């Protein structure tokens, strides 16, 4: 799958003319793949729990995975120290029970 183009500063991907925060490029590939797998599990959980009490927890899981990847959260990854960035992506992340 082709990667979407990055903005000139490398901080955002551009999809259909819209800018989205890019994944932190300093995340080691193995950990990035693990975080993406967890994110996709939570997204499936959101779909499976739509309209139920479990949906809120699933959405929190998506948020946590996106923050770990650097795609959300404040400050953005490019304003964090190397230690803050490492702590963010190394933090334990819960996975859906199902």
Automatic annotation (TrEMBL):
<protein>
    <recommendedName>
        <fullName>Biopolymer transporter Tol</fullName>
    </recommendedName>
</protein>
<feature type="region of interest" description="Disordered">
    <location>
        <begin position="71"/>
        <end position="98"/>
    </location>
</feature>
